[in-house]
Amino acid sequence: MHKVIYDTDPGVDDAMALLFLHRHPDIDLIGITTIFGNASIKATTRNALFLKREWNIPAPVAKGASITIDPSREEIGWPTLVHGDNGLGNIEVPETVDLPLDPRPAYRFIIDTVRANPGEVTLVAVGRMTNLALALKEDPEIAKLVKAVVIMGGNFYVPGNVSPVAEANIHGDPEAADIVLTAPWEVTVVGLDVTSITTMSRSYLAAAAAKGDKAVKMLNDLSQFYIDFYMHAVDDGMMVHDSCACVYVVAPELFTTITGSVRVVCGGIADGQTIVKPDGRRFPPGKWDGLPSQIVCTGVESEKVNDLIRETLLRV
């Protein structure tokens, strides 16, 4: 069993990934931490509680950061064109959800949970990396106690999605991402190189919903706005971003990877760009020297990923 803390900003694709984590037989979802990004921290935390309630998820929810790790960074607007005004595709969601939050801030929940389960916890982060960076700043020693970190973010050999060179999660807090990617723990980066070519059609999701229970039907409903957004890039379907990171946890064999130290550009025209220095390549001394080698996904068996997602969502 993989003990997973899911760091998320729900978010439509975040919702699919959450249901995947909840239902996969090899995953023990032990916590959900929220982060701002696809919507405000108030909205993403409300959405996490809403999905927890609707899908009977026992994992506690801890509220995370509401600003970037560098508070002087100017906040960019919420991507309402992608995820809707409420972050969940404009389905009906109550203003408040009558469920308790864990009393700790997300970064403290991460620290305490990792220390209580040394060597056992995988952090799956599919939004901005602020909570993870705050945890590292507060308690750097947890890097040695985490089993693995899997993030959805970045792009290396394909264009970005919020600028020609940057992916949204990294671009949303580049300083935090650079802290996470240069820390002495194992990070697997599941970025646009694989998620932009892993697409799920409207009909494929609808067929799963027709066969599935209320949870899958609701997932199908909240995904329609998101699918409509992707009409410019996908033929009547959507890119499966966050669920790819979750699939990696249980089926890494479906991905092709390289290893190398990774840095994030912080500021300037390439703000948020992720750059890997592949292991075995020699360069003059530079800012990548002496940093840990991380895992970067560069290829994926997309059809098998989609099939595993569907099979897992249909488990009850």
TrEMBL record:
GO terms classed as biological process: purine nucleoside catabolic process
A GO MF label: purine nucleosidase activity
SUPFAM superfamilies (alphabetical): Nucleoside hydrolase
GO CC aspect terms: cytosol
Keywords: Glycosidase, Hydrolase
Domain (Inosine/uridine-preferring nucleoside hydrolase) ranges: 4-306
Record PANTHER family: INOSINE-URIDINE PREFERRING NUCLEOSIDE HYDROLASE (PTHR12304), URIDINE NUCLEOSIDASE (PTHR12304:SF4)
Protein's name according to its UniProt entry: Inosine-uridine nucleoside N-ribohydrolase
Organism: Rhizobium sullae
